[in-house]
Amino acid sequence: MNDLMIKADNLTRKFGDFTAVDHISFEVGKGEIFGFLGANGAGKTTAMRMLTGLLIPTAGNATVTGFDVYKQPEQIKKRIGYMSQKFSLYEDLTVRENIRLYGGIYGLTDEQITRKSDQLVAMLNMEELQNKRIGSLPLGWKQKLAFSIALLHEPDIVFLDEPTGGVDPITRRQFWEQIYKVANEGTTVFVTTHYMDEAEYCDRVSIMVDGRIEALDTPAGLKKSFMAEDIEEVFIQLARGAQRAE
Amino acid sequence: MKPITVYNLTKSYGSKEAVKGISFEVDHGELFGLIGPDGAGKTTIFRILTTLLTPDTGDARVLGFDVVEDYRKIRPKVGYMPGRFSLYQDLSVKENLSFFASVFGTTVDANYDLIKPIYSQLEPFENRMAGALSGGMKQKLALCCALIHKPKVLFLDEPTTGVDAVSRKEFWQMLHQLKKEEITILVSTPYMDEAEQCDRIALIQEGKIMSIDTPEQITSRFDRNLWAVKSQDKYSLIQTLRDYEFAESVQPFGEYVHYTDQRPDVTADVIEEYLDSRQVADLEIKKIQPDIEDTFMRLMNQEVGHE
């Protein structure tokens, strides 16, 4: 695979006696949409925290955008974007203020921030809403905006942690079209979701069970090797045997 | 007497109309689903029916009792599992259950049979603090606490949100078990695939009901031929279909794109010919049956003129 964006080799994290992430190895390429699935408690969040430079591994190796997770977490943070359904934007700030805040954090110049804000507001058709507080916007708008803001500093990889929970099916699809668009432009997308049908939107999917990656393939490949109708069936076959529940 | 009747219900918060004249009825022993995204008004309906919120106008009755006048008669007879986890985090599993039993003037032993199939899975962790349980186990405990006084009607507000696919599946199996006990269940969910588990569903969007029927009847209202189209490069396939002068709707659906055409009698060959002319590679096209999600989106587009 050319242009490796993530390379994890036996990556492991223990908390006391508990092995949250147990020797996982995988690679993600440039412009790839990589689905990171697992039951509640399988270790997804811990793995994501290591890959985003927030948590030092106990053992194993990983590089993200070419930087080492042990030695260069700060370089990693500059080259990635992150969005979660649970926390993304400041509700008491307006659309434009949120863009400005994140632009500042990522070290964009004032001129860049102004230009990016105009572009982003126009692209999302949010001209009328730009001076409204985030708290007053419908969830679907917030999520589309949070995604765009996660891309403000043109990161190489964007990490999306359950980005589409609770939104209506049309907005959910508009969101996925945004994902296709940025992937098409070369940004790597690393995404977790509980919607098994969304796994099929990904180029490749990994499924974690009890801290280990038990399956990793294209959606079509997984369905074939598990002789399953859909990814949900594959997931249930694998996760039903899980020993631990979070 | 139907266990739940709702007629022309409205509720606003300030200038925001959360529920805009909703009517529906739920039959005895029915598993009835309110299906819709966040902000559709589902939680407001639950709060009104569980007598925690008074409606602005309209009439709502549970087990024949008015939700405003007779709220005291309703409360002992219904179980409610709110969307947000609402048990005591610093009480153990067992303590939470005993607490809810005593609040309703009963004991865990008196109704143990009803919760046994669910509670037996929690018994190994009986002394664990509720706050330290996993998502799936919290959800099971909340269901036990909502059932411990043997309610006639059970209200479940998004019980499976944020829960993984295995726990979701188990949860629906539990609901089917409860149906056999003749408990009437009103359940809400943003997951369209769960709609098919219900006897009847109401599709809700922006405070209004778009359609109420059995899942099979609702999908039969999809009044177009639906095509599933697949290609290696999904992003360019979507763009190419959008450019087509006869395109009506183009929606990504997993590894396929679902497409409807403005021409009622168009054939696969015609669509294929267009896509070939635009050099779409590795094309696959087939006619498919719409599901609840297809139908929901079509109704949404018709109702609100969503872009």
Explain how this protein is built.
The complex is a heterodimer of chains A (246) and B (307). Helix content of chain A is 36%, strand content 26%. Chain A has 9 helices and 10 strands. In chain A, the strands form 2 sheets. Chain A has a 6-stranded mixed sheet, sandwiched between helices. Helices cover 32% and strands 27% of the residues of chain B. Chain B contains 10 helices and 14 strands. A 6-stranded mixed sheet of chain B has the order 6-7-8-3-9-10, with helices on both faces. The model of chain B has no long low-confidence stretch (mean pLDDT 93). Chains A and B meet through helix 6, helix 7 and helix 9 of A and helix 5, helix 6, helix 8, strand 12 and helix 10 of B.
Strand order in space, largest sheet of chain B:
6-7-8-3-9-10
Computed over alpha carbons, the radius of gyration of chain B is 23 Å
Helix content of chain B: 25-40%
The helix tally of chain A amounts to 9
Low-confidence stretches of chain A: none
Major sheet size, sense and barrel closure of chain A: 6 strands, mixed
What is the number of beta strands of chain A? Answer: 10
Question: From the structure provided, what is the oligomeric state, counting identical versus distinct chains?
Answer: heterodimer
Tell me how many strands of chain B there are. 14
Structural class of chain B comes to alpha/beta
Q: Whole-number average pLDDT of chain A?
A: 92
Note the run of SSEs of chain B as H and E: EEEHEEHEHHHEHEEEHEHEEHEH
> Most extensive chain contact?
A-B, 41 and 39 residues
Radius of gyration of chain A: 18 Å
- How much of the residues of chain B is beta strand, in percent? 25-35%
Report the sheet with the most strands of chain B, covering strand number, pairing sense and barrel closure.
6 strands, mixed
